[in-house]
Write a structure and sequence with these properties.
Layout: E1 3-5, H1 29-46, H2 59-71, E2 83-87, E3 95-107, E4 113-123, E5 127-129, H3 131-142, E6 145-146, H4 148-163, E7 168-176, H5 177-180, E8 191-196, H6 199-202, H7 204-214
Parallel strand pairs: 3-6
Antiparallel strand pairs: 1-2, 2-5, 3-4, 4-7, 7-8
Helix pairs in contact: 1-2, 3-4
């Protein structure tokens, strides 16, 4: 029988999770949009922009709506994906790997994009999920101000909870525009993070099989 999994609210707590205030969800999205619009209008004026110009006058509202409804939509609890699991009736006991899942997030230090790919794997403990749900998990946690290390852990934790197994792994390879377009301006560098749990951590053969599938032959201890 299918089972609907709703992620616990504790995904917002703990040192490894997104730092939010206790009253983070008190305001409705429309209220947040209105406040951000006002503040962003002040930012643009402070920068010296002419806010009566036709090209600029609606930018604060566009930015506010984009922040709340799109690029930071992972901060809205109502956007948490509901994950349906299915009984593994075909008794598939090997790892399932989904590669090259698009990661589009924002660095919480400079609010500049993090762009890359996630490679996710799990070994069924009796339950499986639809493939697109893995993409939805990655997308949901990406749509927050993030650090890549935390994002990698959040994806693994969410899949462990949904599937009832410790055997989950995630590697993220991404470029950080806070490095590429400001500061050191190193356009060639990228960042790789990995979170390995269960057999992916304890069994070298399982770990190497995963790395082989995703095309990453680096040794991860």
């Amino acid at each position: 029988m299918d089972q609907d999994i709703d992620f616990d609210d504790d995904v917002f707590t703990g040192k490894e999770h997104t730092p939010l205030r206790a009253n983070a969800f008190d305001k409705l999205p429309a209220e947040k949009i209105q406040l951000i619009q006002q503040h962003f209008h002040e930012i643009m004026e402070t920068l010296g922009l002419d806010m009566t110009d036709d090209s600029l006058k609606d930018s604060p509202r566009r930015v506010a709506k984009m922040y709340v409804n799109e690029i930071f939509g992972g901060l809205l609890p109502e956007n948490k994906p509901r994950i349906s699991t299915f009984s593994n009736k075909y008794k598939y006991r090997q790892m399932l790997v989904e590669k090259d899942i698009t990661v589009y997030s924002f660095c919480e230090h400079h609010f500049l994009p993090i762009i890359g790919k996630a490679h996710v794997a799990y070994i069924s403990n009796g339950e499986v999920i639809g493939l697109s749900k893995i993409n939805r998990i990655v997308d949901y946690y990406s749509k927050r101000p993030q650090v890549q290390e935390r994002l990698t852990m959040q994806i693994v934790d969410a899949l462990k909870d949904a599937l009832g197994t410790k055997d989950v792994a995630c590697i993220i390879e991404a470029k950080h525009l806070c490095v590429n377009c400001r500061g050191i301006k190193d356009t060639a560098s990228s960042t790789t993070t990995a979170e390995l749990s269960g057999l992916f951590r304890t069994n070298p053969i399982t770990r190497q099989e995963f790395l082989h599938y995703v095309g990453n032959h680096a040794k991860l201890d």
